[in-house]
Amino acid sequence: MTETEEAVIYRRNVVKENNNLPGTIDNIDNEPESEAESKEVRLTLMEEILLLGLKDREGYLSFWNDSVCCGLRGCILVELGLRNRIGLEPSGMRRRNLSSRCIVVKKSVPTGDALLDEALKHIRDNKPENTKTWIEYLSGETWNPFKLPLQLRNVRERIAKNLVEKRICTTEKQNFILFDMMTHPLVDLGSKKRVISRIQDVVLNKWSTDVQKVDKRLLSLVLLSHYSDVLECALQHLPDNVYDLAKKRIDDALQLDFFAEANKEGSCEMLWAVMAALNS
User: Fold this and answer.
1) Over the stretch 35-81, which tens digit does the pLDDT of each residue have?
2) How many domains does the structure of the chain reveal?
3) Which CATH number characterizes residue 138's domain?
């Protein structure tokens, strides 16, 4: 049996397995719930990224992961974009560069999520800035002392608290010799497995060379988990040939012209603006 045939068989098996899983909820604000969807715990992009990165038993992120801070702020902006709360100002006749277009508020109705609503309030109450600047403000990585109050504080802990409230994690205090740290071991491993299955399913079975045909929320999850250095958790147990196929598809997406993708009809502009900002 050739490697290609093995990959095809594996992808078919993934489809069969995922057909037994509850459906995902792609548009939290606008799509009506089915009975199956209402039974599945809803997770934001930030919660899914953190869940992927958490060690199952230890309940903390790798100390060497220095990408997740900005990655989570990017998730917040994309989540607000997917919920139609924010977008980019029009590019105009001169087709301004993606990185120079400012974020504008489309709808200031609260989302019900404290982190999202805090970020939305900051964007609404301050002068318009581009995506990269807002990621710097929200992460506290700015040289402007007057903008430091815009930093979202204790983001990981607040996201972890949401996971605890949704009964996916619990809270424990662990001693690390020099200091004590609150950790969040998983108690519902099924939720993490569902996130992993969704990533594998979209990359192996529902992918397209035209990424505009890929579900926006799932595409955002894949690209942002890659930047946040937690994607490997979803791919590490794949057979070598299937792993190589998945990595190639993701790498191809990361090589796309983000400006061109953002200007396509039906595109999620905030996703491409965030990806351009994070990779600049």
Assistant:
1) 444 457 789 999 999 999 999 888 888 878 889 999 999 999 999 99
2) 1
3) 1.10.3630.10
pLDDT in tens, 242-275: 999 999 999 999 999 999 999 998 899 999 999 9
Instruction: Give the phi and the psi of residue 253 in degrees, each rounded to 5.
Output: -65, -35
Residue 61 structure tokens: 């992120």
pLDDT of residue 79: 98
Q: Identify which of 103, 104, 120 has the alpha carbon closest to the alpha carbon of residue 112.
A: 120
Cα 271 to chain center, whole Å? 9
**0.90 exceeded by the pTM?**
no
- Supply the range of the domain harboring residue 176: 3-278
